[in-house]
Amino acid sequence: MFDLGDFIEQCKDAVQGDNPQGRVNELMQEAFRDPDSVNKALTDAAPKNNVAPLYADENLTVLRVFTPANFISPIHNHLMWAVIGILDGEEKNYLYRRTEDGGIKVEKEVVLNKEAEIFSLRADAIHAIEISPEQPLCGLHVYGGHILQRSSRSMWHPETMEEVPYDFEQLMDFCKTLMNQRKAG
C-alpha cells in the first residue's frame, strides 16, 4: 500500500544522494506497481481538479497534477530534472532541442498512457505537452528543485517561437490560444 508521507521522505533522502533522479525514478516505479493505491492517496491528499503541491523545498517538489482534457502547453523548460508518473489519461510530450541558429526543433515525440507509465525529463529538457481531447490526466510529478519558484525558466511564444521569460499568467494565455487553435482546426 502506497504511503504518500513515506514516499515524500524517501524522495527527500534521494535528492541528497549521488543519483537523485535515478533514485526517485526507482521510487516512482516501485510506487506505481500499485497505481490504485497511489491514486487513492493522491485523491485523499488534495482536491481532484487542480495542481496540488504535496511537498516543496529548494531541492524537491512533489505535485499531484490534474490536467484537463484537451490541454495544450506552449514549449517550455523546467531547468531541473523531473520524474512524471501517469495514473489516468494520456499525455503527448514533444521534446525539443536548441539549434545552432538559436531556434528550437522537435527532437522526438513521447506518448505517455494511463496504466502507471513513468517518464523522466533531464534538467536541460525543453518540451510541450498535449492532453487527449477525450480524457483529463492525473499524475504524480517529482522535480529536483522548487518548480513553483524557479524564476529563470523560459517558454516560447506559440506564434512567433520567440523565447520569453516564464510567466505563469502568460503561460495560461498561451495555453488558451493553443487549445482554441486545436478546436478551430
Word description of this protein:
By secondary structure, this protein is of the alpha+beta class. It has a single domain (4-184), classed as Jelly Rolls (Sandwich). Helices cover 28% and strands 36% of the residues. The strands form three sheets. The protein has a five-stranded antiparallel beta sheet, covered by helices on one side. It has a four-stranded antiparallel beta sheet with strand order 3-8-5-6, with no helix packed on it. It has a two-stranded antiparallel sheet with strand order 10-11. A hairpin with a 2-residue loop joins strand 1 (52-57) and strand 2 (60-67). Helix 1 packs antiparallel against helix 2. The mean pLDDT is 91.
Features:
alpha+beta, single chain, five-stranded antiparallel sheet, 4 helices, 185 residues
The CATH superfamily is Jelly Rolls
Q: Determine the fraction of residues in helical runs and give it as a percent range.
A: 25-40%
The main pleated sheet reads as:
5 strands, antiparallel
CATH class equals Mainly Beta
Rg, alpha carbons: 16 Å
Given the C-alpha coordinates, what overall shape results?
globular
Structural class: alpha+beta
Q: Output mean pLDDT.
A: 91
User: What is the CATH topology descriptor?
Assistant: Jelly Rolls
What's the end-to-end separation, in Å?
A: 44 Å
Beta-strand residue fraction: 35-45%
CATH architectural name: Sandwich
Number of domains: 1
The total count of helices amounts to: 4
- The strand count comes to 11
